Structures are given as C-alpha cells and as structure tokens.
Amino acid sequence: MAKKLCDLSEIPAGATRGVNLDEQRYIVVRQTEEIFVYLNRCPHRGVPLDWLPNEFLDHDGDFLRCAAHGALFLMDTGECVAGPCVGEFLIPVAFERMDDTIVLRG
Ligand code: FES
C-alpha cells in the first residue's frame, strides 16, 4: 500500500512541510502547482535542514535553507547554490500525487 506523506491542502502555495515517516525525514515543497520531495538531510553534514518545524525556506522564500550553516538549495532541483556544499544536491524522493494526497512511490 502506498505510504502517504501529506495532503496538498495542508501546504499553502510557496510553502514547505516536514514529514517524518518510518524513521525517515522528508521535505515536501509546494510551488503553486509543482511539488518536489527531498530527503530532509543536508549533503554538508547529514543533518535535517529545518530550524523550526516545517520551516525550510530562506528569508525571501526563494531557496531551501539549511539552518546549520546556511546552505541554500534550489527548490526544483535540490542543488546547493551557496554555502559549504555548493554543487551537491538534496536527495530527491519519488512520489505520486493522488488527487489531494502525496504518496511515496514504490
Ligand atoms: S549541515 Fe547544512 S550547511 Fe552545514
């Protein structure tokens, strides 16, 4: 059975949500209609990115930001574009959208 990450209605456009499921941490990013899901693990030191629950964005809401040392990541590719791990990537997670629900694929 597909494992549910969250409902889209829980995430306003331009916002993020952290989900802990089966001892794994995920980041769900919603940009208007586009959705991206990554493991919540910074490539720099392997720690979660959020500084408060569901808070993953930089001040202007343009990038995902790691609270530990300030690395900035593109929301649509997970590439680090500033900070100590430039050129590395967040790990993307395969998912499916079933109406209002985001589920893990596979
Ligand atoms: S652990 Fe994320 S920038 Fe250092």
What is the string of SSEs from the N terminus onward? Answer: EEEEEEEEE
The major sheet is characterized as: 3 strands, antiparallel
Span between N and C termini?
Answer: 9 Å
Find the structural class using helix and strand composition: mainly beta
Q: In CATH terms, what is the fold-level topology? A: Rieske Iron-sulfur Protein
Give the % helix: under 10%
The fourth-level CATH homologous superfamily is: Rieske [2Fe-2S] iron-sulphur domain
Specify the number of helices. Answer: 0
Provide a brief overview of the structure:
With 106 residues, the protein is mostly beta strands.
Which short descriptors sum up this protein?
single chain; about 110 residues; mainly beta; Rieske Iron-sulfur Protein; three-stranded antiparallel sheet; about 0% helix
Characterization of this structure:
The protein has about 110 residues and is an all-beta fold. The chain has one domain: Rieske Iron-sulfur Protein (3-layer Sandwich). About 0% of the residues lie in helices and about 40% in strands. It has no helices and nine strands. The strands form three sheets. The protein has a three-stranded antiparallel β-sheet with strand order 1-9-8, with no helix packed on it. Strands 2-3-4 form a three-stranded antiparallel β-sheet, with no helix packed on it. Strand 5 (about 65) and strand 6 form a beta hairpin. The radius of gyration is 13 Å and the shape is globular. The model has no long low-confidence stretch (mean pLDDT about 95). Bound molecules: FE2/S2 (inorganic) cluster. The site of FE2/S2 (inorganic) cluster has 10 residues, from loops.
